[in-house]
Amino acid sequence: MENLIDEKQKFKVYKNVFDNNTINNVWELLTHKKLLGLESPIKLGKEGNVFSAIDSKGKRIAVKIYRVTSCDFFKMRKYLEIDPRFKLKKSRKTIIEIWARREFLNLHRARKIRASVPKPIAIYKNVIAMEFIGEKNKNEMPIPAPLLKYAIPKNPKEFFNKLINNIRILYHGNVIHADLSEFNILNYNEKPVIIDLSHGLPINSNASDEMLARDIKNVSRFFRKLGLRIDEEKIIKKIKTK
Ligand SMILES: Nc1ncnc2c1ncn2[C@@H]1O[C@H](COP(=O)(O)OP(=O)(O)OP(=O)(O)O)[C@@H](O)[C@H]1O
Ligand SMILES: [Mg+2]
Q: Which CATH number is correct for 148-240, 3.20.20.70, 1.10.760.10, 1.10.510.10, 1.10.3720.10?
């Protein structure tokens, strides 16, 4: 128990970043033994704050905390409007909790069909625990796998094919990422791992074709710069084919 209190104190160091509710939500995961403690921040951003952490079995995991106070609330609402799975709620806090739940659900769906995404572990309100993509040995530094943007694949064609294959798997598992780009793909030892599934939509939503086309456009733009010739229409057809 004392350890846990230490952890809570340690987390309060970030009190300018998190509100009290969030600190309590992390505390819930700590007390329910999903988490042993936080290690260090990987990214303290505008919406998503990601920490490396250690789980109750001593394994390194990633903890993503959605911020309740300063996120782009209206953009989030707009995105939720096109997802038939969620009823729209007004309060900022509920919207963010739905947002976190949506990422968790999408990760869960994606893993079930063996798409290359972090394995979801636990969720409590606006806090998600998931597999850490990077150095998993807890005696080593918690170095996350780099973003595709900053880690150019050694073989771009091979990497692109693996990526498209994963987008196809996701599609047939009823998930369209809807925010895909080189900023939401990790290059984990030359293997793509798709992250940040909080925008992810089922294929029966109104905007799904538009979102899939945008995802393909974004990744194609990146890989064209690396010399690949890409026919987006053809790729989309391939993704949709059973
Ligand atoms: N499971 C993970 N393992 C390792 N690193 C991760 C993991 N999930 C996220 N990250 C790191 O944290 C960063 C932010 O994560 P993510 O893209 O999910 O959040 P975000 O909402 O886009 O945050 P922001 O709006 O600040 O970009 C990623 O760019 C990546 O570097
Ligand atoms: Mg992101």
A: 1.10.510.10
